[in-house]
Amino acid sequence: MAVAQRIVEAWPADARRSYSYSINTTSPESSERAKMIAALVKLKAAALLQQFVRDVVTSTYDGSENAALLTSVRVLGDVDAAAVLSALVGARMPHRPSACADLLLALTANPSPSFRKVAEAAVAGLDAIGMENSQADTFKRWEELADRSKQPLAPEFIANLFSGLKHFQDPTLCEAAAEKLASRPEVFHPTALVVPAIERICAEQDPLPPAVDPAIQHLWTSAAEFLLRRSEVPPQPPSDWRLHAEFSCKCAECRELQAFARDPNESVHRFRIRQERRSHLQNVIDQHRLDMTHVTDRVGSPQTLVCTKDRRTFKARMKEYHDEIAAMCTLVKLAPKSALSKRMEAAVKASTP
Ligand SMILES: [Zn+2]
Q1: Residue 246 CA to ligand 1 centre (angstroms)
Q2: From ligand 1's centre to the CA of 117, what distance in Å?
Q3: Percent of the chain as helix, strand, coil, to the nearest 5
Q4: Other CB atoms closer than 10 Å to residue 289's CB: what's the count?
Q5: Is the overall model pTM greater than 0.90, yes or no?
């Protein structure tokens, strides 16, 4: 036991040192953390376990500790487990939302009312997801490195969150979560995340439990309104080739490029200029993200930079539009009789000429 105590006390300093040059999200330390939790559970060392989760795991948690954390509940007891795990979820929800939702769901397999604190921490933590500098913690550098391999949120995240929340049979918890998700479509993307999650939740649970039902209706309505705002009317293709272009450089080539970009009729332009000037124009086109390709025709000397307008902005918008129409189809199937569904049906019809 004395040895275990020394290990726990020495750990935080050690952990910090090694994270500064570790770029893997599942660094060796994460499996070590799970092993340490398991060892302390075996020793039934409740106080040390609490200290280890609070001082080490809370700041570095990546979800690989979930199974070990679950076994810790029987040593800590429901009340103390709820205290350390709600602090952990509150701190890590912004960085590891999916892992936190998994943990909440796993905890509620045998729900104790104490775990409501964990559910509240998960709901409160939704606000910090996708916010920059959400936490000024000492592990910033490690976070930046870990972020490179961070996975985007998947629909399972929302489905697991509500599966966990429903055990508390409290509509206000579910409603609060739905409101937070619906209010930030830029983070909780309706087509990629929310609509597939609603579909999954409805498929798994029919009928939905009363605590969840109004919350999912809220998500459904806000997604439908978002999609209609964007895509009730099909996007119109540009009527000519005119592009917005305003360059700060006033060299001869830039002026010629600007004139070409703004020309409503010209879609291809050839610049027969030396290499240094061609590179300059390529940089300007890339910097300003103009809707055009630039290819070097190697015939002759100097060679020729061929610029071809390609309407990529409109093409990208059309791809989004089709995704949004597909999401509307999904929403209509789930609640065909609502007034918003009638409008979405009309939008779907308008998408197929
Ligand atoms: Zn220039």
Answers
A1: 11
A2: 60
A3: 65, 5, 30
A4: 9
A5: no
